[in-house]
Amino acid sequence: MQHVISCSPEESENLNAYILLAEHSLSECKTDVQAYYSESLAHSDFLTHIAQFAEEMLYRGRYINGIRLYCQLYRLLNYYRVVNFSNHEMSHRLYLAAKSIRYIDNEILAEEYQRSFVRLCEEQWLQKDIFLVDDFSTLRLSDMVSLYLVPDTLLSNYYVALSENTFLDEHAKSRLFFELYDDIRMCIKFGVITKGSNDDFCSKEWWTSFDHHHRRYRNECFCMISIALMILEMMNSGDRERFSLFSTMDFHTRSTSILRALCALSLVHHIANSCSGSYMLDLTIPESDSFEFLHDLKILSITDSKEDLLLVYKTISRCFCREEDGSKEHRATSFHPRLHFEKNILDSFFLCLFRRLGDVDFFLENIELSLSENESIKSIVDKAIEYDG
Known about the structure:
Elements: H1 2-6, H2 11-28, H3 30-39, H4 46-59, H5 63-79, H6 88-99, H7 107-133, H8 154-163, H9 170-190, H10 204-209, H11 212-236, H12 240-246, H13 253-272, H14 287-296, H15 306-320, H16 343-356, H17 360-366, H18 375-386
């Protein structure tokens, strides 16, 4: 740490030594390392020290060095398929990584930082994929793994920080946001598919038995959570220009449908709560603006296929609704207040969409409604569809 603080010439050599030691630990003792990261609230090991070095670099204004070291750390974890179950310390470090863009006063440096930040987001999404795919039942505290990973707020925190940057002019910020839009779009289309690990290369069976198309779709869904939270933050800030840009992102059809449905459902919840900005939702969008945003999401054209719309419903029901019977689902993240929906509101929302599309019988044949239709939700959806300002 002293080499990092003093920026001494020995810093690079010592960091490389830490990386090699961490890689050796993951290679030789992967099971023990994973158990350690699932059982302890605070950690003191090679991997944690590397994260602390990156944090110190960010605190000292060495933004590029810090963010690149974080990326290197998570690439290493993903390569050996070890999940860093989120704790308070690591959540704070990732929050700092997102917020650091606020203090960068050079546009070229900001662009370079942003590119590395998108890579860090990608590595985080891959962590969630590993969490869902791999078996953690051998861990001593495997039942507690259901605490999940924390919700992915990296992009929403980054959006707020870049918006609050006082060193860059609005023209520079607009260019950065457009580059962020393009980087995320390209990252999801061509980056977050299947990344090999050390175990993968040793197993031909893995490559022949796994449904790669399904894996790509699942990874994209993880990204949609992060993007949806960012878009909700844009709406909460009244940023219509960037809302229009990011809400029209074009990915795999089903993933785009999930993104728009998540944002729409959050707004419907908000309006149903009389736009009170309650603790569980915390949005403060005026009612008239909420209806305008909901109208702009074009909820009737969420997807072209009734089968795909049903799949969107089932995905959201499984991953974003807490069941009343208390059953545990193996979810990618814990619930976020802005993406946590009541089953009755979800059912009523999709029932309205299927009725408008003339496929209500198909919907009712394939699901079991939680309760009778919520008339207030029907009224909100109908008003949003016909809203003209």
